[in-house]
Amino acid sequence: MEETRRFRVTVEGSWWRLDFATTLRNVRGADLMFGSPTTHGRPLAGYSGLFWRGPRDLTGGTILSSEGRSGEDMMGQDAPWLAYTGRHDEVDRASTLLFLSGPGQMWFARNAWFPAVNPSIAFHEEVRLPPGDTLDLAYALVVGNGAWDRERIEEHVSRAEPPRV
Length: 165
Fold this sequence. Notes:
165 residues; mainly beta; six-stranded antiparallel beta sheet; three-stranded antiparallel beta sheet; 1 helix; 11 strands
């Protein structure tokens, strides 16, 4: 596989944003299959692709998403954004991470055991990439100071550009 990565960082006030895009090109001469533990029989373990594993002190944080959805009920669900807010141990502070992904990606999100968010490309089904074809993926991660509530997150999302580089 050939991969081309593009990054862009934007800093503004009390938040910063990382845009990450990748183009994957199959040069193998045979199909490439992208899967997850769920596509191989392990329920609700559909992580694949870009994966954030947060620090221990954010365990137990709040998971919010579009259309009023929240919590680990987002596991395997499609949504244009997902936010994770948690408190830090040794300082009296919180952080909010807002993940934006492309259409059709399902979310892997957990706040128990360890905090994790993944806009999965193959949560429920494998993705096939034929020889010579490319797979373009783009993500954005906004890191905000403090615990953003749903209203602030949705206001930010309404002004945010889609993931790009």
